[in-house]
């Protein structure tokens, strides 16, 4: 990918949905190797908050449910628009969330297998299940304290921008690299690597949400959020790059 980027000759610039504070050393390397200017203008949703990139209809009925939950009590679960999981893993996720005894908002999109019998009745009002959700609004909600994610780049940046730590369950491509950043570089999350089992799911959710390890991750996530906010303010790295990008476009 870096080699392809270096050989770009028909473009006047490359726009990246990232920030200097997230990938500073590697961005410096790429800028030295690339033959055209690079503009890091992320998180893009902070500059265009009304822009929706959702491929499915977002269900806003979950927001009133979130409003009723205690502050920093809910884990949001969404594995993205492409990832597929087996019926066994779906069932283990369901029963693991039940065993955690914590409130959860779970996106189970159309196309996934059905949830196990008796699951919804056993959870009751402690859990909310939707087919798709307004993710940016959910991550910014005061009730949300954790995000179980596939670690797609957009989802990861949206979570970081709101100071929400992650449980990582990557599937393919860049998701595994991004998960490594979350767990080993920024240290704002943990990764589930083995085949899912309900006890493991329940333990991971509780580690992130209520145990000391998760509290430390949340503290680092809040600190990283502050750095992101600095980058998007006037004078910040992303703000300045966006200004430079506009000037470049106007110069054509």
UniProtKB/TrEMBL annotation:
The keyword Transferase applies. Keywords: Transferase. It holds the Pfam family UDPGT. GO terms for molecular function: UDP-glucosyltransferase activity. Transmembrane segments: none annotated. InterPro entries: UDP_glucos_trans (IPR002213). It comes from the Eukaryota. Belongs to the UDP-glycosyltransferase family. This is Uncharacterized protein. It comes from Linum tenue. The lineage of its organism: Eukaryota, Viridiplantae, Streptophyta, Embryophyta, Tracheophyta.
């Amino acid at each position: 990918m870096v080699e392809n980027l270096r050989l770009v000759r028909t473009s006047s610039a490359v726009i990246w949905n990232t920030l200097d504070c997230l990938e500073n050393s590697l961005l410096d390397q790429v800028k030295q190797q690339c033959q055209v200017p690079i503009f890091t203008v992320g998180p893009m949703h902070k500059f265009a908050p009304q822009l929706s990139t959702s491929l499915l209809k977002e269900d806003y009925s979950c927001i009133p449910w979130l409003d009723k939950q205690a502050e920093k009590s809910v884990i949001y679960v969404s594995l993205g628009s492409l990832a597929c999981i087996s019926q066994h893993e779906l069932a283990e996720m369901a029963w693991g969330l039940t065993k955690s005894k914590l409130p959860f908002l779970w996106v189970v999109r159309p196309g996934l297998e059905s949830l196990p019998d008796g699951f919804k009745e056993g959870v009751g009002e402690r859990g909310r299940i939707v087919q798709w959700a307004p993710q940016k609004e959910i991550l910014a909600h005061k009730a949300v304290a954790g995000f179980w994610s596939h670690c797609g780049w957009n989802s990861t940046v949206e979570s970081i921008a709101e100071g929400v730590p992650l449980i990582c369950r990557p599937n393919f491509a860049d998701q595994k690299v991004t998960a490594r950043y979350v767990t080993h570089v920024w240290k704002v999350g943990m990764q589930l690597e083995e085949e899912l089992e309900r006890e493991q799911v329940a333990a991971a959710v509780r580690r992130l949400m209520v145990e000391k390890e998760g509290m430390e991750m949340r503290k680092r996530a809040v600190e990283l959020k502050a750095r992101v906010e600095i980058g998007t303010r006037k004078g910040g790295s992303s703000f300045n790059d966006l200004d430079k990008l506009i000037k470049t476009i106007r110069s054509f």
